[in-house]
Write the structure tokens for this entry.
Amino acid sequence: MRIATTMALAAILLAAPSLVLSQTNATSAASSSTTPPDWDSQIPVPKGAVLISSTKPKVGVVHSATFEVAGDYQELVDFYEKAIPKAGFQPGPKVVLPARKVYNRSFTHKSALDSVSITPSTDHPGKFSINITYTPVAK
């Protein structure tokens, strides 16, 4: 289990340099219906989440989106633990650090490896940042 978790985190970190780099910011009036370019609509996002930023790679296929949402840490973790398989994804390794209010879960669908990370917002106490790395669905 420890090796699988380490490998999943390594895969995410290896993909990070190819993310880029064209970052877009959502307006302050953004709503939960705002999604980034090439968004995989099967990926669950909690009600009330607001898109803060997104990246589209210049090279590669891994996109990222950062949402912010008010809520309880454990409720957000429970949301993703239920919503990922319900949306048709295969849950992968996870890291849960309740004392730090950190959660990371990788998940797959077909050949795509995606992940979700929850961390406390650095800008807004009482809110959480949800970072999702995803591979767009082929059109």
Remarks:
- The chain has one domain: 2-134.
- Confidence is low (pLDDT under 50) at residues 1-32.
